[in-house]
Structures are given as structure tokens and as C-alpha cells.
Amino acid sequence: MAIWNGRVLNLCILWLLVSTVLLNDADCHSWKKKLPKPRKNLVLYFHDIIYNGQNAENATSTIVAAPEGANLTILTGNNHFGNIAVFDDPITLDNNLHSPPVGRPQGFYFYDMKNTFSSWLGFTFVLNSTDYKGTITFNGADPILVKYRDISVVGGTGDLLMARGIAAINTDAYEGDVYFRLRVNITLYECYY
Ligand SMILES: *[C@@H]1O[C@H](CO)[C@@H](O)[C@H](O)[C@H]1NC(C)=O
Ligand SMILES: *[C@@H]1O[C@H](CO)[C@@H](O)[C@H](O)[C@H]1NC(C)=O
Ligand SMILES: *[C@@H]1O[C@H](CO)[C@@H](O)[C@H](O)[C@H]1NC(C)=O
Ligand SMILES: *[C@@H]1O[C@H](CO)[C@@H](O)[C@H](O)[C@H]1NC(C)=O
């Protein structure tokens, strides 16, 4: 009887050990994983010229939706809340609007807070230069007044196949409601090339 009891005790201890190991493996501690080394880093700029009724020739983005009573040539009050703009801008390697473009960011942004400047971005960099041919797709919240905003890099094609990582965005220039320039510092933790 004493031997049998000893065995049961041993089995219990073994079961405790095994279940502790299994539980530790299965719970949500994967955030403890070390971030992999960045695979690729690129810094690009893009330039957004918003249509204001007089700059049709140069405009690269346009308001396509506005709250009831507002119009599509002037961003609304209330921190532009409810405006949606679609853009097809030039991407450059430096901060000069007139530098040779290496691609186009194509997508949209909408202003999503009434009490502060905040937007949500969804766009794809369509790159076509000697360095890169392919696309990178981004999306995420853009709290505009914060100096550096991280948005997600959710995928890529071509030379940027399977791109995943983050992009730190900062507003590099801002001229009224007609022009802004964003600097995009892209850090890819994953990509195939
Ligand atoms: C368009 O851009 C050119 C070159 O920067 C500038 O000279 C011209 O005044 C702009 N036109 C409009 C309508 O903004
Ligand atoms: C939008 O509002 C501005 C300023 O009130 C006005 O000049 C412009 O004509 C309006 N545009 C349209 C399409 O209603
Ligand atoms: C990419 O650039 C090349 C060379 O300038 C051009 O022939 C080609 O049409 C461009 N492709 C796209 C998708 O814009
Ligand atoms: C881009 O971001 C990375 C990661 O945060 C940083 O190490 C690097 O210095 C930044 N590059 C530039 C040019 O700002």
C-alpha cells in the first residue's frame, strides 16, 4: 500500500511538471519573443496636393466625401471630421517635390476625430524605379499631431513580396490645406528578397 501511494504521488508530481510545461508553452506569452532583426529599411517621401477648386492641373488628391452641408473643395471644420480624400501622389527619395518620382502612393485617408486632428490611412506604394519594382501596402491610425506615428506594413508584391513591418510616418511639411509632405521610414521585419 505504501509503495502504491508513493507511485501515485510520483505520477502526480510528473503530471504537474508536464502540465506546467505545456501550459507555459500554450499561453499568451509569445510577446516575449525577441523582435527579429530588421531585414530592410527604406525612407521615402510623398507629396499630397489637395484639390482646392483652383489647382486642378497640379492636384494629386481630392476630397470625395464630406459631411452633410460641407463641400468637396474645402476641408470641413471640426478637424476635418468626416472628410475622405483619395490620392495618387508622387513618391520621392528626398524631400523635393520636383525630384524624379520612384513611384506613387495610391489610396485614401479619412479624418476620424472631431476633437483633434486624426486620420486613418490605407494606401499602397506602387514602386517602379531601378531599385524596386513592386508594391507595399500600409494601413493604420494616423494621430497627425504626434511627431512619429507607426502604421502597419501589411504586405507587398514584386521586389517587396511578403513585406511586413512598420512605417514611422512624420509630417515633413504642411502648407495650409493644400499641400503636405510625409516622410515614411519603413522597417521590414519580413520580406522574401
Ligand atoms: C503647378 O505647379 C507649378 C510648378 O510648381 C507651378 O508653377 C504652378 O503655379 C502650379 N499651378 C497651380 C494651379 O497651382
Ligand atoms: C465650396 O465653398 C467655397 C467657399 O464657400 C466656395 O467658394 C465654393 O464655390 C464651394 N464649392 C462648391 C462646389 O459648392
Ligand atoms: C515602370 O517604368 C518603366 C520604365 O520607365 C515603364 O516602361 C513602365 O511602363 C513602368 N511601369 C508601370 C507599371 O508604371
Ligand atoms: C528609421 O527607423 C529605424 C527604426 O526605428 C531607425 O533605426 C532609423 O534610424 C530610422 N532612419 C531614419 C533615416 O530616420
UniProtKB/TrEMBL annotation:
The keyword Signal applies. GO terms for cellular component: apoplast. It is found in: Secreted, Extracellular space, Apoplast. Pfam families: Dirigent (PF03018). It comes from the Eukaryota. Residues 1-28 form the signal peptide. One of its GO terms (biological process) is phenylpropanoid biosynthetic process. Keywords: Apoplast, Secreted, Signal. Dirigent proteins impart stereoselectivity on the phenoxy radical-coupling reaction, yielding optically active lignans from two molecules of coniferyl alcohol in the biosynthesis of lignans, flavonolignans, and alkaloids and thus plays a central role in plant secondary metabolism. Homodimer. Belongs to the plant dirigent protein family. PANTHER family: DIRIGENT PROTEIN. This is Dirigent protein. The lineage of its organism: Eukaryota, Viridiplantae, Streptophyta, Embryophyta, Tracheophyta. The gene is DIR9.
